[in-house]
Amino acid sequence: MMKALYSGVSGMRSHQTKMDVIGNNIANVNTNGYKSQRTTFRDVYYQQIKSPTNPGDDGAGTVRGGTNSAQVGYGAQVGSIDTIHTLSGYTPTNKQTDVYINGEGYIKVQTPNKDTFYTRMGALSFDQDGNLVDI
Fold this sequence. Notes:
Elements: H1 2-27, E1 37-43, E2 46-50, E3 56-57, E4 63-64, E5 70-73, E6 76-83, E7 107-110, E8 116-119, E9 124-126, E10 132-134
Antiparallel strand pairs: 1-6, 2-5, 3-4, 7-8, 9-10
């Protein structure tokens, strides 16, 4: 009985994670450059409760077929949370510094600490020193 409850709890926890991911997707629907995510699940593990048998002679000269194994699963867990890298729609901004990447590729940006990052967010502008920066 307790094993069935644990199985149900693991499914509810996994589903809660999926709901959190969906909520995050909805909350960021109008965020520039946001890429939606999806959740996949996987089995926790199985316990074998019946071993398989080979076909064999029953002793009376009759050949009987074998039996398959029987397994009991113990729930599910989150397998992965994947980012979906599809192209977003094009929205003209009429800013001369904004760019739109149509197809594959990223914009290489550098932080003040000289760390390098890559983005597809094309909202660019000039800072007070005349450097082209992302927002």
